[in-house]
Design a protein that fits this description.
By secondary structure, the protein is of the alpha/beta class. It has 18 helices and 18 strands. The structure holds 1-deoxynojirimycin (NOJ) and calcium ion. Calcium ion (CA) binds next to loops.
Length: 554
């Protein structure tokens, strides 16, 4: 297979996110690596994805799972070499799969040569100007410049011992860069070229909304005032207007390639009208919307999310993005069994209280969660736009709640003294086979412990088995090809259908029916192409509860 020559491949791509440390371990040290991914290219090709997005594989102290990058233009020696990377890209391209890499521009790791230089340099130096250093408050300058809280707990300001503090919106090992500094900007343009020159087809941009900062106000607003200000032009660091200048510069570089390289921004901005600004063709091209992964399991909520995002993407000249799972949220097969949170609440995607209880309170029904996750996947794969899948969802993996505290890696867990459990449960290495010390992940134990029940989810156990989650994804991704030529969607409002059923048709005459209720619903005439419930649509044409089916109509 070769790569298609469609310049717009990304508009409707099925993109598979790989968290490299937990995908496949080729050399048996317990950590997934690039050669491990290369060894699984056939699996990815058979799955039928159009692209893979590689979460960071760069040199890193792993304070935040690799999102603390010490060198943006190299490979972590534990994961491989640049030559391994080139081989991986060649193997993926040879299988017709494109490659997207993660760019982490808001911060570096604290081991980055720039940060070490900044710490060794005096206040006011050029080296400190690449980051965000401010003087401490109080007579002894030992008080942080503001009371802002960091994403993983604690204050955002870290003292360096000479009266100055540096800003870290995330872990203390992730100092924020100063994007008003020309050298910082030029260095990231160089990084984009570095990877594009190596054959990378696109980019995912971490924390895209936070790069531009204005911390000149004195005193700085308090955390409570930040809440009132909200994201936008008046916020010191979230979704400021100047951030768009940065991405316009990036676009000029990305457009200098043939085909132009797409980028997708991680944009946690609630106002969808502002979020799509990042998706303009003069900027990144796409912005993640996380609305589906935050939506309650209901026909009404899903319809509202889809309608709004299709409209916004069209207005921006972009295509929509859909996500149910990634490395930051509770896996959909568990999350969708949790009680509704009222919609749009980020905590729903993480549900710390449930994790804190060891997955016990509230008690969930794993079978219901899996049924809903499978139904959600078919729903997503029928939508126009690009679908972002996260490794392991094609196996139906649940969130792992039983990781012992000593084995936890997420900085959230450690910086909050265990009060916030964090994201490790979605990052447990994949089970490839039913045997071996890490179920085929590698030849030794995995860096995060896998529960025994992972065996039942092993890829080898689902391969070729009718009704398995893996075969469902393979079949849906194959069928989905027929939906790509036409990006239109029309809702099917059929008075004969129960209110719990959401239906839409696509340009090729296909219809997608999702039953969010528990009771079966009778489907209208049409040939059933696929159904998320292994029992399928029987002779009575009943779509089971918590299921999706695609129909070829007329
Ligand atoms: C978003 C990434 O998805 C997450 O994993 C990371 O911790 C933060 N950005 C900080 O880089
Ligand atoms: Ca390894």
């Amino acid at each position: 297979m070769t790569l298609s020559d469609d310049k717009n491949w990304w508009r409707t791509a099925a993109v598979y996110q790989i968290y490299p440390r937990s995908f496949a371990d080729a050399n048996g040290d317990g950590i997934g690596d690039l050669n491990g991914i290369t060894s699984r290219v056939d699996y990815l090709a058979q799955l039928g994805v159009d692209a893979v997005w590689l979460s960071p594989f760069y040199p890193s102290a792993l304070a935040d799972g690799g999102y603390d990058v010490d060198d943006h233009r190299d490979v972590d020696p534990r994961l491989g070499t640049l030559a391994d990377f080139d081989r991986l890209v060649a193997a993926l391209h040879g299988a017709g799969i494109r490659v997207i890499v993660d760019i982490v521009p808001n911060h570096t790791g604290s081991g980055h040569k720039w940060f070490r230089e900044a710490l060794a340099s005096p206040r006011g130096s050029a080296a400190r100007d690449r980051y965000v250093f401010l003087d401490g408050l109080g007579d002894d300058a030992d008080q942080p410049p503001s009371d802002w809280g960091a994403a993983f707990g604690g204050n955002v300001w870290e003292p360096v011992g000479d009266g100055q503090f540096y800003l870290h919106l995330f872990a203390r090992e992730q100092p924020d860069l100063n994007w008003a500094n020309r050298e910082v900007r030029d260095d990231f343009l160089k990084t984009l070229r570095f990877w594009a020159d190596r054959g990378v087809d696109g980019f995912r941009v971490d924390v895209a909304m936070a790069l531009a900062k204005d911390l000149t106000a004195r005193p700085l607003p308090s955390a409570a005032e930040l809440e009132r200000i909200g994201p936008g032009p008046d916020h010191p660091y979230t979704d400021r207007d100047e951030v768009h200048e940065i991405f316009r510069e990036w676009r000029a570089v990305l457009d200098s390639y043939d085909p132009p390289r797409p980028a997708v921004g991680e944009v946690w901005v609630d106002d969808p009208a502002r979020r799509v600004l990042y998706a303009l063709s003069s900027e990144l091209g796409q912005a993640f919307n996380f609305d589906l992964l935050r939506a309650d399991w209901s026909a009404e909520a899903f319809r509202a999310v889809v309608a709004r995002n299709l409209q916004l993407a069209a207005a921006a000249g972009s295509s929509s993005t859909w996500v149910f799972s990634n490395h930051d949220v509770v896996r959909a097969a568990s999350r969708l069994a949790l009680p509704a949170a009222g919609g749009g609440d980020a905590s729903y995607a993480r549900d710390d209280a449930w994790l804190q209880s060891g997955g016990l309170t509230p008690a969930i029904d794993p079978a219901e969660g899996l049924a809903r996750a499978r139904a959600a996947a078919l729903f997503m794969l029928a939508l126009p736009g690009s679908a972002y899948l996260y490794q392991g969802e094609e196996l139906g993996l649940p969130e792992v709640v039983e990781i012992p505290p000593a084995a936890r890696q997420d900085p959230t867990f450690h910086r909050t003294g265990g009060a916030t459990i964090g994201r490790d449960g979605a990052r447990v290495p994949l089970p490839w086979s039913e045997e071996g010390p890490s179920f085929g992940f590698g030849s030794g134990p995995a860096h995060l412990p896998q529960p025994d029940y992972f065996q039942t989810y092993a890829a080898s156990r689902q391969d070729g088995v009718a009704g398995s989650t893996l075969e469902l994804y393979r079949a849906a991704l194959r069928l989905r090809e027929a939906l790509r030529a036409d990006e239109s969607l029309a809702w099917v409002d059929d008075a004969d259908l129960p209110g719990d059923v959401l239906a839409f048709s696509r340009g090729n005459g296909w219809r997608c029916y999702s039953n969010f209720g528990a009771a079966p619903a009778v489907l209208p005439p049409g040939r059933v192409l696929i159904c998320s419930d292994p029992a399928g649509v029987g002779a009575k044409r009943e779509l089971p509860g918590n299921a999706t089916a695609w129909l070829a109509c007329g």
